[in-house]
Design brief:
CATH topology: ECO RI Endonuclease, Chain A
Largest sheet: 3 strands, antiparallel
CATH superfamily: Eco RI Endonuclease, subunit A
CATH architecture: 3-Layer(aba) Sandwich
Helix content: 40-55%
Order of helices and strands: HHEEHEEE
Shape: flat
CATH class: Alpha Beta
Strand content: 15-25%
Number of domains: 1
Number of helices: 3
Radius of gyration: 17 Å
Number of strands: 5
């Protein structure tokens, strides 16, 4: 069982879990609202907008290796991925197959 699943199981029914789920829903709604605004504003110059809930670490590492050839980035686990609460919104380049994130969103509650 993944750590996220264990944490959800431990917190099931608690105030913390209910608050987290509400924050995740709100951040997802915000990202989708931003997506609509950006698509409406820039659809005449960009046609490949995309929303994702996850991105593989290997995809991030591949782009870092292209951008910084003198650095050594590696990915230990081929199946590992990043799953931000609100997802990722970006541009998909159909010519290169690259996904260029524009917005990556995560909801966090800071203790007061």
């Amino acid at each position: 069982m993944a750590n996220k699943e264990k944490l959800s199981e431990i917190r099931a029914g608690t105030t913390t879990n209910k608050t987290s789920k509400k924050q995740e829903k709100e951040i997802q709604e915000a990202v989708l609202a931003v997506r609509q605004e950006i698509e409406a504003e820039f659809s005449d110059i960009v046609s490949g907008f995309e929303y994702r809930s996850t991105i593989k670490n290997s995809e991030i590492i591949a782009q870092l290796n292209k951008s910084y050839p003198d650095e050594d980035f590696s990915c230990e686990l081929e199946k590992s991925y990043v799953s931000p609460d609100g997802g990722l919104f970006g541009i998909s380049d159909s010519k290169t197959g690259r996904f260029l994130p524009v917005l990556v969103s995560e909801a966090k509650k800071i203790k007061e």
